[in-house]
Amino acid sequence: MDFNWKIFATALGLAFIIEGLPYFLFAERMPNVLRMIAERPPSFLRGLGLMAMVVGLVIVLVVRS
């Protein structure tokens, strides 16, 4: 299996775009949102991260099939 750097770079670029959207669109609200997230317990954040990874994996599997 050959590693495709073009697809990897595209995926990385899209990840940066998606991560940057809330900061661009809701710049005034983001400090409050980040403060609320920081106040959550680590178990909640791990669950949120796991859920995001599972959703991302499902999207990739659906698109690639």
Describe the structure.
The two termini are 17 Å apart. The protein contains three helices and no strands. It has one domain. It is mostly helical.
Please give a quick description of this structure:
The chain is mostly helical. 82% of the residues lie in helices and 0% in strands.
Secondary structure layout plus pairing:
Elements: H1 5-25, H2 30-38, H3 42-64
Shape assignment: extended
Rounded mean pLDDT score: 94
What is the beta-strand fraction?
Answer: under 5%
Classification by helices and strands: mainly alpha
What is the terminal-to-terminal distance? Answer: 17 Å
Counting DSSP E segments of at least 2 residues, the number of strands comes to 0
Taken together, the total number of domains comes to 1
Following the backbone from N to C, one meets helices and strands in this order, namely: HHH
Enumerate how many helices there are, as a single number: 3
Helix proportion of residues, in percent? over 70%
Largest sheet features: none
What is the gyration radius calculated from CA atoms?
15 Å
Outline the low-pLDDT stretches: none
Properties at a glance:
65 residues; mainly alpha; 3 helices; 82% helix; 0% strand; transmembrane helix; DUF2065 domain-containing protein; transmembrane
